Inverse folding.
């Protein structure tokens, strides 16, 4: 048995060099924590400042609802016309199409994964769905443009719709392939994993007692899902849908490949159009300083919309605990 | 209905428990039907991933070879050559952005878990969550307006691109690290305090090593996300098809940017190269994601 030599007293005291370690560390991490807020504040200030001349020139509502976008090429004054409505309209339409397709699918998948899947398959299946979230946007775009559109969308979706409902303004032809509908479908695939992940978490915190009670009363599995799980998860479902909507609104490259980049506004879903994010990415590379200001203004509008939706969605979801959908960032 | 009940009653005159109600077959059928629908939906949801992997591999594998990683891209219409510039640029940008996002993210998580109390920490937590939903193109616009040609005019380059990617990675790292730090039991902290360690020492020597595997998982997922981002790079790196070593001031290339440019040209050779780039990018992302899962699963098993 060895005996440790007794430590002499002063060693227990903080020596001068390390005495400041704790407070300094505290300051360091506090500053790091504040960075998020600083970055967000800078984002707002900086982009609004850059976009200000355009908003002033067009007026706030003139900018939002103007239908003509004619970029100017001046260095220091505003000479063009900037009406962002065609892009705002395209953004809303594609995102809504995406949500309409993705919502029932995500609900069904989340229900299957939490209620029906054999426990051995549960993890592999959910990994497979969530792996979709890891696919880079540009790969979605290329796959959508070079495979999905010519092989599936054109022959089996767009053209039949146009033949059957061509008289209806929503499906008016001619069919080019790139269209609001194509972009919406690719968006649906892209937001499926995040919505599924959130719904799965929402269903998982659903009161198990209520479910057992319903089974005890003789409910079938479908009735438990329909009458117990879905109603009591309502706010979580709304929150998850809004998170998906936020993603869909801001998605850039994949949409850029499939929406067609037309600068005109078309009411038909089968016609090419443009979205805010896609227009920014598409025009930036050969934009004049004035055009960049116009793009900044679009960016600000996009930011305000996505930010509002995200904040509302997080508030809805946070009430149930901290749903993160982490597995599908 | 009532006659049916009367005939199936027990000797005491009560309804038998074995008696199925009139709508029972319908309910059973509906249940079976819904099970079928949900299973089909599950199958449908899995299809796109395999289609994407299959198609990208099919179009891309012929292009990938030694040359693809070591040579620069010729004009779009000419065959051969590769994405050396893009791979170098992506590596360069990612190293810089990891160096920015990971320490900052972990420090933020330490603040939230070990120090943060009250409203301020709640606000930071909330906006970290919200930040994951900011459109990546907007991050690009912001960095452009702040660093490229705005408050400071550094021009396009590697560093500003890395800043944009770091902003996208930051909330992912922060949240993963926060969750993992929370899982470290308080007893470990108390034991460390009991041995005379200060708070900083406890966090750096006890809490962080314990949470390291989980944090690694989060960092790898963040890298997987950052490496494929295209939109912010269009506005900050701009793109180059030769190797750029300067830290700032010259447009830098990246794999997603080269794919983006190649795929939008009408030349078959450029498109084929773009698919080669897509396949290698996809491979990198999958390695990151699967690796992250494996590390995460092992860490969980050890704990359990």
């Amino acid at each position: 048995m060895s005996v440790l030599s007794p430590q002499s007293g002063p060693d227990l005291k903080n020596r001068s060099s390390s005495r400041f370690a704790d407070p300094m560390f505290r300051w360091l991490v506090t500053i790091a924590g504040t960075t998020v807020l600083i970055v967000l504040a800078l984002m707002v200030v900086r982009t609004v400042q850059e976009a200000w001349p355009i908003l002033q020139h067009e007026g706030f509502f003139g900018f939002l609802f103007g239908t003509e976008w004619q970029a100017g090429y001046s260095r220091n004054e505003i000479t063009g016309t900037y009406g962002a409505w065609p892009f705002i309209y395209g953004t809303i339409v594609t995102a809504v199409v995406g949500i309409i397709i993705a919502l029932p699918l995500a609900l069904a998948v989340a229900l299957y994964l939490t209620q029906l899947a054999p426990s051995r398959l549960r993890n592999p299946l959910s990994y497979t769905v969530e792996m979709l979230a890891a696919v880079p946007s540009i790969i979605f775009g290329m796959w959508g443009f070079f495979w999905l559109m010519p092989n599936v969308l054109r022959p089996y979706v767009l053209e039949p719709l146009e033949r059957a409902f061509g008289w209806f303004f929503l499906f008016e032809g001619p069919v080019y392939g790139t269209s609001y509908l194509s972009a919406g479908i690719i968006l649906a695939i892209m937001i499926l994993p995040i919505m599924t992940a959130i719904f799965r978490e929402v269903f998982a915190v659903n009161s198990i007692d209520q479910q057992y009670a319903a089974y005890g009363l003789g409910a079938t599995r479908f009735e438990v899902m329909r009458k117990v799980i879905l109603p009591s998860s309502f706010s979580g479902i709304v929150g998850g849908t809004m998170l998906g909507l936020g993603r869909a609104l801001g998605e850039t490259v994949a949409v850029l490949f499939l929406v067609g980049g037309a600068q005109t506004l078309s009411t038909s879903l089968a016609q090419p159009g443009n979205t805010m994010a896609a227009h920014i990415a598409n025009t930036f590379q050969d934009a004049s300083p004035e055009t960049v200001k116009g793009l900044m203004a679009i960016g600000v509008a996009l930011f305000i919309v996505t930010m509002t939706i995200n904040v509302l969605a997080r508030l809805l979801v946070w009430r149930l605990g901290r749903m993160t959908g982490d597995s599908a960032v | 209905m009532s006659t049916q009940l009367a005939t199936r009653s027990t000797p005491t005159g009560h309804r038998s428990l074995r008696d199925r109600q009139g709508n029972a077959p319908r309910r059973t059928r509906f249940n079976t039907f819904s099970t079928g629908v949900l299973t089909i939906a599950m199958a449908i949801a899995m299809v796109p991933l395999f289609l994407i992997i299959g198609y990208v591999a099919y179009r891309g594998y012929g292009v990938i070879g030694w040359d693809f990683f070591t040579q620069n891209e010729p004009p779009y219409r000419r065959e051969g050559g590769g994405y050396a510039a893009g791979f170098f640029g992506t590596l360069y940008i990612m190293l810089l952005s990891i160096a920015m996002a990971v320490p900052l993210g972990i420090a933020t998580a330490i603040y939230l878990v070990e120090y943060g109390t009250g409203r301020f920490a709640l606000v930071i937590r909330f906006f970290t969550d919200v930040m994951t939903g900011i459109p990546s193109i907007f991050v690009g616009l912001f960095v452009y307006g702040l660093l490229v040609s705005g408050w400071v005019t550094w021009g396009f380059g590697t560093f500003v691109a890395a800043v944009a990617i770091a902003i996208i990675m930051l909330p992912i790292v922060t949240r993963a690290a926060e969750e993992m730090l929370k899982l470290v039991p308080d007893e470990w902290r108390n034991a460390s305090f009991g041995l005379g360690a200060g708070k900083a020492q406890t966090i750096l020597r006890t809490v962080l090593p314990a949470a390291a595997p989980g944090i690694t998982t989060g960092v790898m997922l963040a890298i997987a996300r950052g490496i494929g981002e295209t939109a912010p790079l269009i506005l900050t790196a701009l793109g180059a098809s030769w190797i750029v070593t300067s830290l700032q001031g010259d447009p830098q290339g990246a794999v997603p940017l080269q794919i983006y440019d190649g795929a939008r040209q009408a030349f078959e050779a450029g498109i084929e190269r773009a698919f080669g780039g897509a396949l290698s990018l996809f491979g990198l992302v999958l390695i990151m994601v699967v690796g992250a899962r494996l590390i995460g699963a092992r860490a969980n098993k050890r704990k359990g």
Observations:
- The beta strands of chain A are 69-70, 81-82.
- The two ends of chain A are 55 Å apart (CA to CA).
